Amino acid sequence: MTTPDGDEARSAGEAVLVVEGLSKVFPGPPPVTAVRDCTFEVRRGEFVAITGPSGSGKTTLLSLLGLLESPTAGRYLLDGVDVIGLSDSSRCVQRAHRIGFVFQAFHLLGYRSVLENVELGLLYQGVVPKGERRRRALEVIDSVGLTGRCDGLCAHLSGGEKQRVAIARALVGQPALVLCDEPTGNLDSANSEAVLALFDDLHRSGMTVVVVTHDPAVAGRAQRNLRMADGVLTEAVQA
Amino acid sequence: MTRWGRGPTRRVRVRWRDIGGEAAAAVVQRPVRTLLTALGTILGVGAFVATNGLADTARAQVSSRFDALKATEVRVQDATPDGSNPFPADVADRLERLNGVNRAGLFYMVPDDGSLRVRTSPTLVGAGRALVPVVAAQPSAVLAALPELSVGRLYDDFHEARGERVALVGRAAASQMGITRVDNQPVVFIGDIAYTVVGVLDEVQRLPDLLLSVVIPVAAAERDFRIDGATFQVLIDTAAGAAQLAGHQAPLALRPDHPERLQSLVPPDPRRLRRQVSDDVTGLFLALSALALLIGVVAIANATLLSVVERRNEIGLRRALGARKAHIRRQITTEAAIIGLLAGVIGTSLGLLGVAITSTARDWTMTINPSTILAAPFIGLLAGAVAGLLPAIKASRTPPAETLRA
Ligand SMILES: Nc1ncnc2c1ncn2[C@@H]1O[C@H](COP(=O)(O)OP(=O)(O)O)[C@@H](O)[C@H]1O
Ligand SMILES: [Mg+2]
Questions:
Q1: Angle, nearest 10°, between helix axes A130-143 and A159-172?
Q2: Beta-carbon neighbour count of residue A29 at 10 Å?
C-alpha cells in the first residue's frame, strides 16, 4: 500500500520477479563468473528455495535480486519495474519499498532495542511519520511473537529471537519480496524450527519469499526448489 | 503483461530529524566510545577556553593596576627650556578647572651651587655629609604626589600665598637629620635661613625623590633662593581615564599665549596598552588552542574512521534497507558533530574550572569574555563536523552487498 507504482501489479499469481539471462562476472583477476545466464520467474505468494553447494553463486544471485549489486548482463523486472540501469539512489528507493532482507548473521544493531531495530526497516522509506513507524513495528513484532521483548536490547536476545527480529524488520516495510540468505545458518535445530514455522506463516499470508540455503530442512518447506551449480540455475524436480 | 518500463526514480526524502536521531542514538548509547573519541577535542576546547580566560583575566589585572595609578598621572614641562619658569603663578587654579583634574601644581628642585647645606643647626658642623636636596612644590603639587604623613601635617595655600618658611621632610631625609617629631617645632636651615618642619612624609605614590628631600613652598623658594636654571614641572593627578584629555588641554590652559612652549607627558593610553598586552597573549593562546584543536579534530577523525570500519556491517545494513550514500554521509558527519558539540560543552566547563582555580590561587578577579563561552561549544561542533567528513565519505562507499557476505 505504500509501494510506489506497485499496487496494480500486486495480484496473486502475477510475476513479482522476472529475470532474463542474468549474469554476474567479478572482474578479478582472475575473472569469476558467479552467476551465469539465469532466467526464471517468481510469482506472487511463492515460497522458493535455491539450494546448491558452497561457492555455486547463491549469495551473488541473491545480491543481484536484492539490487545490492548490478549484473554484468541480463534483464530484471521487479514488481513490474525495470530495475536494470537504475541510479544508485533509485535502487535505494526500490530496496526501501520493495525488498526485505533476512541475513544469516542477523545484522541487528545490538545497542538498540528490538523496537528500534524493527523501525529501522521503515526509516529509509522516508515518508512514514515516527508514530506510524512505531505502530507498524509493534504490529509486526507481535506477529513474530516478540511483543514482550520490545524494549530489550537486541544484544541480549538468543539467536532465534534475533532472527525473528530481523524477519520483523524485513516485513515492516511491506515489501513485495523477502530475500533470505541462509536464514538458519547460525541457529540450532530448535531455533531453526521456530524460524521455519514463521516462514510457513509468511507463505500462508501470501508473502513472496526467496530463500537461499543448503539446509535441506529449509528447502523441504519451500513450495518450489531451484538448484544452483557453478553459477547456473536449474529447476529441481520436487522429490 | 510484462512491462519493461522505467521504474520510479523518485528520491527518498528522509527527514534530517530521523537521521539526527540515528546519529544521536549511536553517540549516546555507546558513552565510553563517545568519551574516548571526544577526549582530544575536550582538551582542545578546554585549552581554548582556559587560555582565553586566563588572558582576559591577566589583562584585567594589568589594566586595573595600571588604571589605578599610572593612568592618572600627567606631567607638563618646558618644551624649550631656557632656565626661566614658563608656568604662570596660578597653575592650580587654571588646571583644576579642567574636567577630570583632581590636583595640579608646580614643583622643581632648587638648584644647589653648594650653598644650601641643609642641616638642623645654624652652625656648619657636620657639613660634608650627604647633601639633602631641596624641592620647591606648591601645596597642590604635594597633594598630587598622593603623600602619607608619619607625623605633622602638610603646608597649605595659606602658607604658599604668604611665602611662609615651612618645610616637609621626606622619610629618608628626616632619619638622616634625626627628625622624628614635629610637635617641638624642629627647624632645618637651608643656606642660612631657618624653615620650620611641619610634617614628615612617610610615603608618596609619585615623585619618590620627595622622600629624600626637604620640600618647601614655591613662593618661599623664589624669595629666598636663586631658582634660575631649575627644571620646572607641573604634576597633575587626574580622575581615572582623564589623563589623555588633561594632558591634551593643559598647555593651552596654562599658556594660552604660547601653548607650544609646554609639553605634556601622558601615560600610554590604557586601551592601547590593553590591546598591546592582549596582542602578545592572543598570539600565544591562538597558536596553543589551534594546535590543541587540530589534535582534537585528528582524534575525532581517527576514532570515527575506526568506528566506520568497525561498523561496516551496520552501514551495509542501512544501505540494504534503502539508505542512500548521502544518508550515510549525513549520519556519520552528524555523529562526529554531536561528539564535537559534547566535547565543546565539556571542554568549556573544564576550561572555565581551570580559569577559576588559577584565579583563586593567584587572588585574581576571574574575567572572561562571554563570547568565548558561547563560541567554544560551536568550535567543538565545527571541529567534529570537519573531522567527520572523511570518515563519512569512506562510510558511504561501503558496498551494500557486504552484509550478505559478512
Ligand atoms: N566480490 C567478489 N569478488 C570476486 N569474486 C567473488 C565476489 N563475491 C563472490 N565471489 C565469487 O563468486 C563465487 C560465488 O560465490 P557466492 O555467491 O558467495 O556463492 P555461495 O553463496 O553459493 O556460497 C565464488 O567463487 C566466490 O569466490
Ligand atoms: Mg553464500
A1: 130
A2: 6
Checking phi first, is residue A82 left (phi over 0); if not, alpha (psi -120 to 50) or beta? beta
Among B194-208, B236-250, B289-303, the range of highest mean pLDDT: B194-208
- Which atom of ligand 1 has the smallest separation from the CA of A60? 17
Angle at A140 between CA A134 and CA A146, to 5 degrees: 100
pLDDT category at A129 given cuts 50, 70, 90 is: confident
Q: Which residues pair with B74 in a beta bridge?
A: B236
User: If you classify domain A15-238 with CATH, what class do you get?
Assistant: alpha beta
Q: Tell me, what's the pLDDT at B402? A: 80
Work out the angle at residue A19's Cα, subtended by the Cα atoms of residues A17 and A21, and round it to the nearest 5 degrees: 175
Residues in A touching B403 (Cβ below 8 Å): 68, 101, 103, 105, 107
Ligand 1 atom 4: residue of nearest CA: A26
Q: Beta-carbon neighbour count of residue A43 at 10 Å?
A: 15
Do A121 and B321 make contact, defined as CB atoms within 8 angstroms? yes
Distances (CA, A) of A135 to A117, A122, A124, A172, B328: 14, 11, 16, 10, 25
Is there a contact between B277 and B59 (Cβ–Cβ < 8 Å)? yes
pLDDT of residue B340: 93
Residue nearest to atom 14 of ligand 1 (CA): A57
Q: What confidence tens digit (pLDDT) does each residue in A153-194 have?
A: 988 998 889 999 999 999 999 999 999 999 988 888 888 888
Mutate to test the interface with B, among A43, A93, A98, A102 (most CBs of B within 10 A): A93
Residue of B nearest to A172 (CA): B321
Exposed/middle/buried for A1, CB within 10 Å: 0-12, 13-18, 19+?
exposed
DSSP A113: B
Is B12 in contact with A83 (Cβ distance < 8 A)?
Answer: no
pLDDT given at position A12: 58
pLDDT of residue A5: 44
Instruction: Find where cell 581551570 sits.
Output: B354
Q: Are A98 and A3 in contact (CB under 8 A)?
A: yes
Across the interface, which of A112, A116, A124 has its CB nearest the CB of B12?
A124
pLDDT tens per residue, range A28-49: 789 999 999 999 999 999 999 9
Ligand nearest to the backbone CA of A34: 1
Q: Which of A62, A89, A130 has the CB atom closest to B324's CB atom? A: A89
- Tell me the per-residue pLDDT of B120-136, one tens digit each, with 9 for 90 and over: 888 776 555 668 999 99
Output the pLDDT for position B274. 61
Tell me, what DSSP letter sits at residue B129? B
pLDDT of amino acid A141: 94
Distance set, CA B242 to CA B97, B174, B205, B275 (Å): 13, 35, 18, 18
Q: pLDDT, tens digit, for every residue of B289-323?
A: 788 788 888 888 888 898 888 889 999 999 999 99
Q: Where are the domains of chain A?
A: 15-238
